[in-house]
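Lab notebook: predicted structure, single chain.

Context: the supervisor wants predicted structures on file for every construct in the current expression panel, including those that have not yet been purified. This is the next one on the list. No modifications to the sequence; it matches the entry in the shared construct table.
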Amino acid sequence: MIRTHKFLLRPTARQASAMGEMLRDHCSLYNGALQERRDAYRHASKVTVRYGAQSAQLKDIRAFDPERQGRWSFSSQQATLRRLDKAFAAFFKRVEAGRKPGYPRFKGVGHFDTVTFPKDGDGCRWDSTPHDPQTRVRVQGVGHVRVHRHRTVVGRVRTIGVKREGDRWYVVLSCDQVPALPLPGTGAMVGIDMGVKHFLTTSDGEHIASPRFLGAAADDLAEAQKHLATFPKRTRQRTKKHRAAARRVARIHTKIRRQRLDHAHKTALALVRVHDVIAHERLNTTGMTRAPKPKPDPEQPGAFLPNGAGAKAGLNRSILDAGWGVFLAILANKAESAGRTVIAVDPRNTSRTCPSCGHIAKGNRVTQAKFECMACGFAANADHVGATNVLNRAGPALRGTA
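Prediction complete. Output recorded below exactly as produced.
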């Protein structure tokens, strides 16, 4: 298996400054390579510059600017160019598919937050000494940085990333050859129904409340964003007060993200420990949170009919705050490590199907919380009915994999 570990770094002030310079120089390399591609396509008869040609220029770039580009790892700079190449590959793929292209954009210093080292020991070396409280990671041009290693790294370290989040620094290790640690079998199966009012409901009738971390921090976030918006555009990124206001907003968002991840990890672990098989709906959160298309008014050119965008925005915000996609990804990883089975089923009509007689109707869902079958009169909690139907649909899939 492949697993990722993320550890907090504890750099000195000098090391933090050096890592900040490393990010800025890699950001400059990324933007310069993007500018070269744009200029070549616009002014040189639509010539396409690819990764191979830009990577071949690195040696000359490092020799021309040894203070900024020559001091960092050659392989990490190649990884930055590959990052740009992947962005262009995704852009052309969207164009061919007829979707909104989204041309690769220049990165601001505050939005370029990761430097990747493709191989352990090439520009960055992880101290693999087990049970050593003085774990350090050696970064070329920075030095040996202390690591707060809160767990043992299992497997072989393949790639290393140095990441900045707000005013904190992290090292991200991608490891392969990670052995599975299967848990003893319990024989239990469960279906889960994701929701907004309840984070999830199980087929056993258990409700897990939605923590609503974004809603809890809404007042503080709104106040911080309002203060940030008071700075005129011409002075932004130029004063200490503006940078402090931006850091405050970033800290609030970082706290919300950590709370959401912590809740997802704990909830997923509780399910994996108790159940051998876990079934859930195959959710397309991107489509579910897409804004409704505008409806032109045929009687008034240039005007639009109401499309419920305001109400949909509130629902989208609640879905994104719940973090369904993050939770299901964590659940799949934990289940794989523990030797459990996770099954994704078709979500259509799970909340409209009677588990007693099988009757499907929109009217079966009386309210958000109440289900009452129009054919047989079966009544129950709507989320519980949805979770039960999810478990029932997982049966054929489970038999097919047996």
